[in-house]
Each structure stands twice: as structure tokens, then as C-alpha cells.
Amino acid sequence: MADYDVLVAGGGPVGASLALALHGAGLAVALFEPRAPRAAQADPRPIALSHGSRLILERLGVWEQLVPATPIRRIHVSQRGGFGRVELDAAAARLPALGYVVDYGRLAVTLETALETAGSCRVIRAAVNGSHADAEVAYAQFDAGRGPEQVATRLLAVADGGALASARVQVRDYRQAAVTARVTSGSPHRNIAYERFTPEGPLALLPMEQMLALVWTTTPDRAQQLCAAPEAEFLERLQRAFGGRLGTFSSASARAWFPLTQKTTDRIAEPRTVALGNAAQTLHPVAGQGFNLGLRDAWELAAAVRSGDRNEIGAAAQIAAYHERRRLDRGAGIWFTDALVRLFSNDVAPLRLARGLGLAALGAMPPVRDFVVRRMTFGTRG
């Protein structure tokens, strides 16, 4: 007999979104999260939400709490040391914005607060440290301070990226790291996001209120050096890497860096168990696809659960249907992100020429450009 209809392992934005999407369905839902309440509040990493993600967050009733999220009206894509550039425009794509930039911490706390207010999900302050399943239920083992315990659920939804460590995982080490900071520039950003490809990796500047959120991909050694450098030296290096399109960079906040790898698993759908978000795929931040893909995972899993009979929750047919529905969108997101990194993170002359031609062609072909924008915005079902 199941203690819960759905048990969510991981209370980050994807796990919380899934639990919130199940609110009002009359189901017994629990969520495991070992971190203390509001633990993510101080996390300053920028998250680029697609317009498609905004629509999901509106349906979850949390978008108004994220306002004013900074809209991205245009995206300017170029490569350093080579010709070719393209601009993606929200108005041309008939969208109010291509995306929106918020702090990860603010997004996480907003969803956490909404889940508490809804009151329909039990939150257990512990991590799932083991699981197994039979034909009827999945069992999750945990320790919340009272010794080992176990609960049974019709469906175990694993949204904790740390769970990848124990699954069949394919890892691609890009030998890159991302430096993050907030910077100010001499010219206003005008709600334009910049993606500039360099031989060491992409350099992104995202409009964020009156400043710019920087995500600078480079080598791990150089990332450490950039974080340790005096502010003036850091800004000078940034100026050389990005150029003068935004005038002179004048200030930078505290910097942080983290290594970049791609982690994917083929175990996204098993008996009574589904992996989603970072537990299914952890992606490079180029093009900002990771969280948006995970949010679509959560929304579609909740839709599958809500549309069926209660006794069908977690059944093999339901899990197989969800896996098939997510297969194309997930595969395309992983392939697109990895291809961008591999194609643009080098300085080989023939590839530099091919990249320039590709960017120029994309800029000259509005139907193709609009196709790319809609896939980045809504996934393969856009």
C-alpha cells in the first residue's frame, strides 16, 4: 500500500514546480529537501527564463512574485576574431520577450513560498538516500534524524541533481568553468542579451535590472585567476574579451566560478520512478536551456499524473507515455547545447569560417531564425 501518490526527491525549482503543479488534484504528495527553508536565497546565479517558462510559471501562480524580472527583447550573437553575427528579436518572433532574467535564489524561494502557501504537499527535511521499486510502488529510504525510515509511493519523481551520481550517467567534461558576476557598462543594455563566442568558450552578458549578469566560460585555471584578480584587472580582461559594444565596463560585483560538465542519464523512466530536471540532464549554460528544459519536464509529468486515474499513477504505461512525450524535446535540448559548445569553443580557422557563414546565413533567413527562436522558447512542441 502506498503512503503517497507522488513523492518528489529534491526541492529545488524543478521539484517545487512539480509539486506545485499537482496542487488541487486531490493527491497525497510529499517532497524531500534536506536544506533548511530559504537556503537558496543567497544564490546569485542568473537564470534566463524563456517566454515558454514564463507561461508555465503564470499557470503555477508565481510569475507576479517574480516581477520585475528583466525582459530580454533581443539577443545579439557573435564570435570574437571572426565575421558573422545574428540578432534574434522578440518583436520579429511575435513574442513580448525572448526571455527574462532573475536570480536563481529569488526563483527558488518564490516557488518554495508558493508551495508552503498551497499547503497541499508535505515537506520532509531529509534527502532520499536509496530507493527501489516493485510492480505496485516505489520505496524511498531516508533519515530525518530519527534513524533510517522508508515510505512507499505510487510514483517517485527524482528532481535532485545529486541523484545522478548513483545512476547510469554519461559525463562529458568540457574542461571549462563559468565565472559569474554583475557588471556595469558605459552604455545601457536596452534589454539586449549578448552571446559572444570566444576560443575558450561563450561569454554571455544578460540584462538584469540596470546591470548586466555575466556568465563567462573559460578554462578552470583562468576562471580562478579572474575571480582572484583585482576589480580593475578583471574589467580590463573582460573589455578585451567582449569588445566596446557596451562602452567601458566600470564595476564588477563579487565573482564566483564553477566547473562545467554535461551529465545525462538513460534512466529517466523506470518502474515507478521518473528522473527530471538536473537528475535527468545537467547542461552547459550556453543558450540557457537547462532549467527551461527541466521546467517542461515537471509541467508535462504533472499533466500526465493529473489526466489519468489515481490507480494509474506511476504505472508502466503512464511512465512509458511520459518518456516518449519528453524524448524529442529532451534529446534536442541536449544535442543543441552540446553542439554549440563543441562548435564554438575553439579557434580552428576552417571552423571559424564555417561559424561565420552559419551566423550570417541565419541572420539572412528569417523563417529559419524564427524556427530557432520558437524552439528555444517553447521546446520541440513550440
Structural description of this entry:
This protein is an alpha+beta fold. It has a single domain, classed as FAD/NAD(P)-binding domain. 35% of the residues lie in helices and 32% in strands. The strands form 3 sheets. Strands 5, 6, 12, 13, 14, 15, 16, 17 and 20 form a 9-stranded mixed sheet that branches. A hairpin with a 2-residue loop joins strand 13 and strand 14 (201-208). Helix 1 packs parallel to helix 7 and helix 7 (290-307) packs antiparallel against helix 8 (316-344). The longest helix is centred in the last third of the chain and has 29 residues, at 316-344. The protein is globular, with a radius of gyration of 21 Å. 45% of the residues are buried. The mean pLDDT is 90.
Helices and strands, with pairings:
Elements: E1 4-9, H1 13-21, E2 29-32, E3 46-50, H2 51-59, H3 63-66, E4 70-72, E5 74-79, E6 85-89, E7 99-103, H4 104-118, E8 121-124, E9 128-133, E10 138-143, E11 148-158, E12 169-185, E13 192-198, E14 201-208, E15 211-218, H5 220-228, H6 231-242, E16 249-252, E17 256-265, E18 269-270, E19 273-275, E20 281-282, H7 290-307, H8 316-344, H9 349-364, H10 366-378
Parallel strand pairs: 1-2, 1-11, 2-8, 5-13, 11-19
Antiparallel strand pairs: 3-7, 4-7, 5-6, 9-10, 10-11, 12-15, 12-16, 12-17, 13-14, 14-15, 17-20, 18-19
